[in-house]
Specification:
CATH superfamily of the largest domain: D-amino Acid Aminotransferase, subunit A, domain 2
Bound molecules: pyridoxal-5'-phosphate, 2-OXO-4-methylpentanoic acid
Number of strands: 18
CATH architecture of the largest domain: Alpha-Beta Barrel
Radius of gyration: 20 Å
Oligomer: single chain
Shape: globular
Number of helices: 7
Largest sheet: 9 strands, antiparallel
Number of domains: 2
Order of helices and strands: EEEHEEEHHEEEHHEEEEHEEEEHE
Distance between the termini: 24 Å
CATH topology of the largest domain: D-amino Acid Aminotransferase, Chain A, domain 2
Structural class: alpha+beta
Helix content: 10-25%
CATH class of the largest domain: Alpha Beta
Length: 339
């Protein structure tokens, strides 16, 4: 195998040795299967291709200083996948089967788990699709759950550095009471044009406002938003954003640090009162926000004047990473060791 340059990995696909699959036929989940092919054979009338019966998840395996490999809150990913599948009428995979598959695929690809010193990790991508053929708009009668893994570096260039973001008013991502709280491919298709325009203009990602009134902050690209002011961690409550496991964890860590935590609608104007702001997610970890531009209103909300992450974001980032890599005690029972 060609040597992998662990310290300079991007967030991209690199083939690994194996993936795992579980088929759902006749309403039942079958045995876990191991494959070394990175393609699948699919009926051309499969519902995932026509009617968007597709859900995915994202989590990571981290190699610690002690050489042990840790998963972070995988039960939350299993539960969110079940919620997503319920939402778009797909077969739900029980948590113990999800765990079996994650453990197996990580162990089989152990040589692709980046070393501790690199600061990289193994990204785990579970997906579940409708494979049964339909022509009418109906749920499939067969499903396929699979997981591939790939070693990754930072999602946003520069890693833990403050970068600029831009509010998009031209595009919405998901409607209230639509599929925004589910991790379905369609939401990401809806974000591609906004994301491309933001990147082309030099921003890290696009920022969505609530699509009913365009008054409140929703989320940004593939990450949740948080702001810090007066020792308070503030994050939007919205019916069109993905409930982020990273954000949920940061709310707990902020509370542990003696901060107040508020999850509530956040008006765009309130951005001007925040001392720090960040994007958070499995891929993004914490990506500190330097500023958010609102070009249509000719306004900029600036959080970092020197381009550096703020002290509270830094503290939260260090704490979260320390738990994920096993450098600090796991007091909340968030970590599972892969054995
Ligand atoms: N929001 C969106 C739209 C995402 O795709 C993600 C990534 O999973 C997140 C937020 C962050 O969620 P999590 O912290 O569970 O990875
Ligand atoms: C994650 O943070 O795991 C995500 O799903 C982001 C992604 C869509 C690349």
């Amino acid at each position: 195998m060609k040597e992998i340059d662990w310290a300079n990995l991007s967030f991209g696909y690199m083939p690994t040795d194996y993936n795992v699959r579980i088929y759902n036929r006749n309403g039942k989940w079958g045995e876990l299967e191991v494959s070394s092919s990175d393609t699948i054979n699919l009926h051309m009338a499969a519902t995932c291709l026509h009617y968007g019966q597709e859900a995915f998840e994202g989590l990571k395996a981290y190699r610690g200083k002690d050489g042990k490999v840790r998963l972070f809150r995988f039960e939350e990913n299993a539960a969110r996948l079940q919620r997503t599948c319920h939402g778009i009428m797909m077969a739900e995979l029980p948590t113990d089967r999800f765990k079996e598959a994650v453990m197996k695929v990580v162990k089989l690809n152990e040589r692709f788990i980046p070393p501790y010193e690199s600061g990289a990790s193994l990204y785990i991508r579970p997906l579940l699709i409708g494979t049964g053929a339909q022509v009418g708009v109906k749920p499939a009668d067969e499903y396929l759950f699979m997981i591939f893994v790939t070693p990754v570096g930072p999602y946003f260039k520069g890693g833990f550095a403050a970068t600029p973001y831009v509010i998009t008013r031209k595009y919405d991502r998901a409607a209230p009471h639509g599929t925004g709280t589910y991790k379905v491919g369609g939401n990401y298709a809806a974000s591609l044009r906004a994301s491309k325009e933001a990147h082309d203009a030099g921003y890290s990602a696009e920022f969505y406002l609530d699509c009913k009134e365009h008054k409140f902050i929703d989320e940004c690209g593939a990450a949740n938003f948080f702001g810090i002011k007066d020792n308070t961690y503030i994050t939007p409550l919205s019916s069109s954003i993905l409930p982020s496991i990273t954000n949920k964890s940061l709310m707990q860590l902020a509370e542990d640090m003696g901060m107040e935590v508020e999850r509530r609608p956040v008006l765009e104007e309130e951005l001007s009162t925040f001392e720090e702001a960040g994007a958070c997610g499995t891929a993004a970890v914490i990506s500190p926000i330097q500023r958010i531009d609102d070009p249509e209103n000719n306004h900029s909300y600036v959080f970092s004047h020197d381009g550096k992450p703020g002290p509270i974001s830094t503290k939260l980032y260090n704490k979260l990473r320390a738990i994920q890599y096993g450098d600090e005690p796991d007091t909340h029972g968030w970590v599972t060791i892969v054995e």
